[in-house]
Amino acid sequence: MSTARTIVDADIARWQKVGETDKHGLGAAFFALTKKEEFRSVLYYRMPACRAFAWLMGRGAPALYLNTPNIGPGLYLQHGFATVVTAKSIGRNCLINQQVTIGYRGFDKAPHIGDNVSIRAGAKILGDVTIGDNSVIGAGAVVIRSVPPDCVVVGNPAVIVRRNGVKCREAL
């Protein structure tokens, strides 16, 4: 019934696609709502009025903070424990693992995350940077410079190890 319905439907489809549930339609939605606190956190973000029903559906993930004004459909938070997401925007079909920090580096300098980006466990993305579409931020990477599209970055400081599917080693 909400204007966020199509976005929530895309979130459910994404959770189903990455293997969290083999159920379809209402079964997938019910499973995500009752069993996955990370999904509930995203739902409460998209539809704040649903928080009133938290006693029925369950609370969101206790150590997951979503403070981003624009998150595209298909957001998947895997193990949202100790995860802080404070970006200016996040594109479609983003995957975020646990203990990730996406946040400010200076006043009003937060990242922009593109479409189909995968951010692995413990990664840090800080400041006024852009993460290009279809990029992967490796586990534990510290990113303080923009990442071009179609790249894999790892390390501290992060370096590009794959660009457009070809192995390389380039500084950001």
TrEMBL record:
Keyword Acyltransferase annotated: yes
Domain of life: Bacteria
GO MF entries: acyltransferase activity
InterPro entries linked: Hexapep, LbH_SAT, Trimer_LpxA-like_sf
UniProt keyword terms in alphabetical order: Acyltransferase, Transferase
Pfam families (alphabetical): Hexapep (PF00132)
Family membership noted in the UniProt record: Belongs to the transferase hexapeptide repeat family.
Protein name: Serine acetyltransferase
Higher taxonomy: Bacteria, Pseudomonadati, Pseudomonadota, Alphaproteobacteria, Hyphomicrobiales
